[in-house]
Amino acid sequence: MRAELVSIGTELLLGQIVDTNAAYLAAKLAEIGVGVYFKTTVGDNLERARLALEQALARSDALVCTGGLGPTADDVTSEAVAALTGTQLVLHQPSLDHIQRLFHHRQLPLLDSHRKQALIPSGALPLPNPVGSAPGYILELRGKLIAALPGVPSEMRAMAEESLLPYLAERTGGELVIKSRVLRFAGIGESMLEERTRELFASENPTIAYLAQPGEAHLRITARAASRSQADAMIAAMQQAVLERLGEAYFGADQDTLESAVGARLRQLGLTLATAESCTGGLLGDRITNIPGSSAYYQGGVVSYSNRAKVELLGVPSPVIAAHGAVSAETALAMAGGARARLRADLALAITGVAGPGGGTAAKPVGLVYLALDDGVHPASRELRLGGARQEIKYRSTQVALTMLWQYLGSRG
Amino acid sequence: MRAELVSIGTELLLGQIVDTNAAYLAAKLAEIGVGVYFKTTVGDNLERARLALEQALARSDALVCTGGLGPTADDVTSEAVAALTGTQLVLHQPSLDHIQRLFHHRQLPLLDSHRKQALIPSGALPLPNPVGSAPGYILELRGKLIAALPGVPSEMRAMAEESLLPYLAERTGGELVIKSRVLRFAGIGESMLEERTRELFASENPTIAYLAQPGEAHLRITARAASRSQADAMIAAMQQAVLERLGEAYFGADQDTLESAVGARLRQLGLTLATAESCTGGLLGDRITNIPGSSAYYQGGVVSYSNRAKVELLGVPSPVIAAHGAVSAETALAMAGGARARLRADLALAITGVAGPGGGTAAKPVGLVYLALDDGVHPASRELRLGGARQEIKYRSTQVALTMLWQYLGSRG
User: Fold this and answer.
1) Most CB atoms within 10 A, among B157, B175, B255, B400?
2) Last residue of a domain, one of A196, A228, A253
3) Does B394 touch chain A (CB under 8 A)?
4) Under an 8 A CB cutoff, do A299 and B312 touch?
5) What ipTM, to 2 d.p.?
6) Inter-chain residue contact B282 with A289, CB threshold 8 Å
7) Which domain, by its residues, includes A46?
C-alpha cells in the first residue's frame, strides 16, 4: 500500500505551525509496512483541498488527511472528501451524542457550528475521538482509501493508535515491516558517537543513522523484516553492538527523555531532589514534573530570580553574592545547598547564569552559566559557556544540569 | 502568479527534520504578491520527484523547489527537472570555477561528485550561491517557471533574497501584495470569536480566518493590495472593526504572547510579580522568564511540589491543607498570599491541581486546577476543569493563569 499524507490548514501551508502530525504518521505507517512517498499541504480552501485530494489519490493507494475537521467555516476537509467522492455528508448520531456530553461536562454552550463536526461522508467508518470532539473516519471507495483525522496532535495520535493503524495493519497484513528505534546519549558529541560506531555504519539491514539534538546525540537503528518480531530481534542485536561501544553515555530509547531517565534512577535509589533556578526561571522544574509520578522524588524548588529571593528563600549569604556576583560558582553552590536544606531533599541542583540578550558584561557574558549539584557530601559545580538565543540558553542549561545529575546517579547506582 | 513549494528530501518527508524553508518562502513570496496554494514534499527518488513536479506544475504557474541539489547519488532534483521538461543537463563553467575555488580555499579535495553540482538544465538562468557550492537556477518554459534552490537554509535564503525574489518581483511587477496579521485573543473561545465577527467573515478583501490554539483564539486578517502601504491600511481598518466587537479579549498581534502582553502591562503599571506553582512545576515561571527583561518585574517563585514545601516555603497553614486538601481554592489563595509576602511582590499568582495521569479521585479528578491571584486587597481564585494529557493540563493551567492576570491588569490600567 502506497500512502500519502495530506495536511490541511493554512497555518501549516504558511509554516506558522509545524506539522508534527506528518512525522508521527510517517513513522507509524512504516512500522506496519505502509510506505509514505508523498506529502501534500494545502490551505483551508474547499476547491483547492478537493483538487489536492484528487491528485494525491491518483498517485497513491491511501490518503491519510489531518486537520480541517473543526467547527468553523474554514474547516473544509469533509466537504472536500464528499465533493471528490460524490458522497453526501450525513449526521453520525453517536458522534453528536459524544460532542453533547463533552460540552455538557465542560459546562460550555453547544453552538450550531459544533454539530457540523458530527457530519461524516455517507458510507464512511467513523473513528471515535477519545480525547476531543470531532470524529475521524475511513472511507473505502473504488479500491482506494481515504482516512480523515483531526489536526490537534493529541486527538490525532489517540485515534491513529486506537483505530486507524490497527485497521490498516489488518488490511495490509503480510507486507514488509519497517521498524526503527532511536537510542539516546548524553554527555557525548555526535562526532564521537559516529567515530565509535563507524564499522557498524556499513550495515545494510538494519541501518544506522545519526541525529543531533541540543545537548544530546541520537542514533537511529532501522530494520526491514517480514514480521515485527523479526525486526525487533534485528534491532536488539544492533543495539547491543552499539551499547558495547558507548554504553556509558546511553540513557534511553525512543520516547525516553533525560528527565524520565533521571526520574527512574532517583526512584530506584530512593533519593529525593530539589531545584534552585535563576536564569532558567522554572524550566528545570517544569521538565522534571513533566514525568508522571515525579512527586515521588521531586520535592519542589525555588525560582530565585532576584538577589533578594536568593538570600531570603534560599539562604545564600549576601557576602557571597557581593564578592562573587549572582552568576558565579560560589552562588550556584550556595543556592544548591540552600535548596537541599530548605526543601529537605537528598540532592539539589542549582542553575544561575546570563540568558541574555541584555545583562551581559565582558567578565560575565551572555551564555555564562554555573551549575551546582549538592548531595550533602561533595557539592560540585560546573561552568558553561553557551551560545544561542535566550530560550536556547535556558534549555541547554537544563539539559547539562540533567546530564550532570544523571551521571552522578550512575556513579552511585 | 500561483506558486507551489516542492520540498525534496526523504528526511523532510519522514519528518526527521522540520521544513523551515517552506515557511520562509511562503512568507517572502506573499510579500511580493505571489500566493502559495500548495506544498508538496517528496523523497530522494528520481521517478517520484519527477511525478511530483509534473503534477505540481499542472496546477500552479511556478514551482519553487528546495533540496536535492547536493553532490550525492540521492540528490535528484536537476535530473527530475530535466526529465520533466525534456531538457539536457549541461555544465555551467562559472559554477564549476566557483566550486573549485571554494574547495581550494577550504583545502578540501574536489571529487567527481562535486562536479555534478555544476550541471544545470539547458536554457536555465543560473543563480549564484554566495554561501555554498551548488548553484540554483530558474527555468522558464511554456509559460511556466521552475526555480531550484539548495536545501541548506542559509544557502537557500541567501539565493532567494539576492536572486530569486527580485527576479519574481520584476516578472510579476504590478501584481498584488499579500500581507497578513494575526490578532490574538484570550479568555474567549474560537466559536465565540467567530460568532461575534460573523458579518466580517464575508469580506473578500481583506479576508479573515480563525485559528485555535490551547487557551487562545486567533484571527488572521489577510489583505491583497497594489502596495504594502495599501495592504497595511486595509488590515488596520479591518483590525479596528474586529476590535470594536471584541476588543476586551485582545492582547496582541503576530509574535506577541500572553507572557509578553502581561510583562508589558506590569512594566507600564510599575508592578512586581511572584509565582507559586504546584502541578505546573515551574512552567509558569519559565514562560514569564522567556521574555527578555522580565527581571524588571518578576521577583521569582516557589515550586511547592510537596505539601511540606507549601507549608515551609510559602507559609500555607497546615490546617488549610488538612481541611480542604492541597488542591483547593483555599490552598491556592494561601499559596498566592505566601508567595506575595515572601517574595515581597505587588502581585502573586498561584496554581495547584491534578495534572495526572495518576493522582485523581472522584472528588478531585485529573484536570481539576485552582488558580489564585493576590494583590494584597482582593485575593481571587478560580476553578478549572481541564481535559488532555499531563503536559496539556500544565500548559492550559498557565495559559488561564496568565489570562487571569492579564485581565486583572487591564482592569487596573
Assistant:
1) B400
2) A253
3) yes
4) no
5) 0.76
6) yes
7) 2-172
